[in-house]
Structure formats: structure tokens, C-alpha cells
Amino acid sequence: MRPVTKTVLKTALGLGLAGAGVLGWASLVERNAFVLRRFDVPVLPDGAAPLRVLHLSDLHLLPRQRAKRAWVHSLASLDPDLVITTGDNIAAPDAVPALLDAYERLLGIPGVFVLGSNDYFAPKLKNPLGYLTRNFAKGVGTTQRLPTADLVRGLGSRGWVDLTNRRDTLTVRGLRVDVRGVDDPHLGYDRLDLVRGPASPDADVTLSVTHAPYQRVLDAYAADGADLIVAGHTHGGQVCVPGYGALVTNCDLDTSRVKGLSRWWPGAGSTPSSQAPADAAWLEVSAGLGTAPTAPVRLACRPEATLLTLVPRSQA
Ligand SMILES: [Fe+2]
Fold first, then answer.
1. pTM of whole model > 0.85?
2. How far is the CA of 222 from the centre of ligand 1 (A)?
3. Calcineurin-like phosphoesterase domain: from which residue to which, for each copy (predicted)?
């Protein structure tokens, strides 16, 4: 064999092995390497005691995923004051009992929830790397329905408040919390007209939630004076480039806000961060805890839950 041919074959073999190694890591190791992120968010009145908010999103749970169920179950030991789930809880018609089992200890704590497209429709088989290329405007890819009513009934029966195109006011550890949410904007189910308006006059803090962080929703929430906006859906980009970050958000949010804590104000999508007003809302986007079962890989983007500690604004 000529030396050049030998070199080409060696290189191809090396690249193939490296690719298989990365795929193995992404599908077998990182996809199950759950991590808890923590952020302090200065949104409370002066003198208020800290409020601990646990945010879960995008479990895409299958009953066989025992490690994920156990990890979520263990989060109750954080002793949060409020739990927020931002949808895409399940990934199969028989997953609701497993989900309620995973949430069992958390359901004894005050909570609010909105739904994502994967709480309505089952995923369909597709290219695992399609997350990087598919048009985010395509919405749902199948018409097989999931047991959404069972899911909503299961969460609501223990007292969690359904914020699907609804707003409410909760009292949590003595604080009046204005909460509002929309149905999934990725499906065009959001009815902002039902939740718009200024916060209750006696509210100490305003929390606004959505599954998918589309700009039209974030703009409306910020214009109405939201202190904190909480969202999921992006999976943090799911398949990211090590040292660079996300390539996509699966919606019209920019990749700099694909996960973690940032700021949002009306029109933020078309103005630089340096022009953020002092009263801009805080935006927390979760990279979520799962993947669609048809695309079971995560790279440079560990599955996560978030513990937000709300503290007085003076601590900013
Ligand atoms: Fe999701």
C-alpha cells in the first residue's frame, strides 16, 4: 500500500473512532450527568427573607429512566419554597405515573406549571442531529396525542397551580407572588391576551413563565413589569460545541440567552445588551433534564435543574 493511501486510511479510522467516542459520551454519559445550577436573583422588596425557587423543565420522561426519576425525587431535600415546571414533562403515553412518582415529594410544596408541546404530542422518529438543523417554526412533528388531561389532573390534584394561559396570586412564605403563564408558544397556543396587564397592586414580586421563550412572549411579560421570567424548551442547545456553546435555541431567542440567567426588556431581541434598562426583567432559561427519545444525545450541555434564590433588589 502506498504511504499516502495508508495515511488517509489511518486518518479516516482515527476520525471514525473519535466520532464514535463523542457519540458514546453524548448518549451514554453526558445525557445522564444531571447537575443543579444555582443563581441569586435580586427581585424582592428590601427586608424580605430569601425565597428558594426550584425550576424543572424538559424531563421528556420515559418510565424506564430510573436514574432521572431518582435524581428528580432527591431534589426535595433542597427544601424549596416554590417549584416551577415549564413543560415537556413526558415522552410516552404511559409516562404520567412515573412522572408523578418522580415529583412525589415536590408535590407537597407549592408549585406552578405550564405545558410544552411534548406534553400534548408524542415525539416521532427523526435524525438525532436534526435538533441542529430543523426549522424551529415547524412546531409539532406528530399527531399522536399524549394523556395531557391525566398529567394536568395529577399535578393539579396536589395543589400545583396550572398557569396555562392563566394568572393568579400566591402567598409563599408571607410574600405575595403574582404568577402568570401561557400555553406553549412553540405550537402557537399562547393566549397573551388572557394574561396581559400590570401586576396586582399588592404583589411583592412578579414571576412569569412559559415553555418556549419566544420574543413575543418575553416582550409582553417584560412590558407588564415582570421581575423574573422563567422558561425551558431550548435544551441549552442540546448538542453544543465545546468551548463555543450553543448553535441553536429552537425558537427566535438568541443563543447568548439559550440557558442560564440574563436580562430581557421589550425589544431586547433587536438591541444590544449594553442598552439594557436598569429595570429590565431577569430571564432564566433552563437547559432542561432530558431529550426527546428520538434524539438521545447531549454534548457540552449537561442536563440540569435550577435553584433560584430570590433576594432583595438592594443586593443586586
Ligand atoms: Fe423539550
1. yes
2. 23
3. 51-236
